[in-house]
């Protein structure tokens, strides 16, 4: 018997008030998408295509107007939203850290809300710092403004993992970082995903990042899911927009092959 999906969207729709008499904005339009246990799915699409809305529907930061969403087999509407969010890690675009809390305070906040004893929280913070490769003696007591963007994202990942979730949702987590840091953090996260047996849904604007990190890629445009699949499956999609998104990484790969000698400094 096939394993049931860990997250399933079935014909999900969500619209918002456009404001000042404008038409309603159809942010997510009849989306059906399944994420298997242990899978790493990237959601790619332009600005305003509905990616963040889709993610926020999964952990009930907002509720769907139409369709059904299940997480671990349960309809999310039947689950207490706060309890649901504690089971699902969420990594925000720019870390989303609480500025008045130290690194340890940020990472430990969910275990604290769950009522874990202080000594256990402290040990977990240290474990998580090690997991995201931040030296605890240097970073534990720093505040977010004392960290680089990459370090803030590492703390954001540690915080998302603090309640030991099976599912992690990431909203453009590495977008604002320089290319080297972005690459390193992406690879590090992928290793964590595999090691901890996580199920990850990551939003990105960048098809190259999606192809390099994820098992499958879902492409959204104007609220609709245009295509989903492995990079090979996507490349067989007849959709013109999907083809356009794939052209850039393909062209870059071909040009780099020609321009960058293999026997250089690196
Ligand atoms: N709370 C809201 N109220 C009104 N409109 C909203 C709200 N949230 C999202 N929208 C609208 O829904 C559409 C989809 O937004 P969403 O944030 O999901 O897109 P996105 O693909 O994540 O964009 P970006 O890549 O720029 O973050 C947009 O037109 C946006 O303006």
TrEMBL record:
Signal peptide: none annotated. Transmembrane segments: none annotated. Residues 7-247 form the ABC transporter domain. SMART domains: AAA. GO terms for molecular function: ATP binding; ATP hydrolysis activity. Coiled coil: none annotated. One of its GO terms (biological process) is quaternary ammonium group transport. Belongs to the ABC transporter superfamily. This is Osmoprotectant transport system ATP-binding protein. It comes from Bradyrhizobium lablabi.
